[in-house]
Specification:
Blueprint (H helix, E strand, L loop, with lengths): L13 E6 L9 E4 L4 H4 L5 E4 L4 E8 L3 E5 L1
Parallel strand pairs: 1-2
Antiparallel strand pairs: 1-5, 3-4, 4-5
């Protein structure tokens, strides 16, 4: 999904990745335009974003969101 304002992230920060149409639960939160994302990853996986520029380690899975660490 698109980010309205740039987010400055540092190693160790937590980032929420949630389905479109859901409300954020963390300060650092982005949406995904792929509704199957939560089902396709597992806790402990590393998800690459922006052609591998950003590495997210999946910490937790919810019904409609992921909690990850940069």
């Amino acid at each position: 999904g698109d980010v309205d304002n740039p987010i400055e992230l540092q190693c160790g920060d937590q980032l929420e990745v949630r389905n479109e149409g859901t409300e954020p639960e963390l300060d650092y939160s982005i949406t995904s335009n792929y509704p199957g994302l939560v089902d396709d990853v597992a806790v402990g996986d590393t998800m690459l974003v922006d052609n591998g520029v950003l590495h997210l380690k999946i910490l937790e899975k919810g019904k409609d969101r992921l909690l990850s660490e940069i």
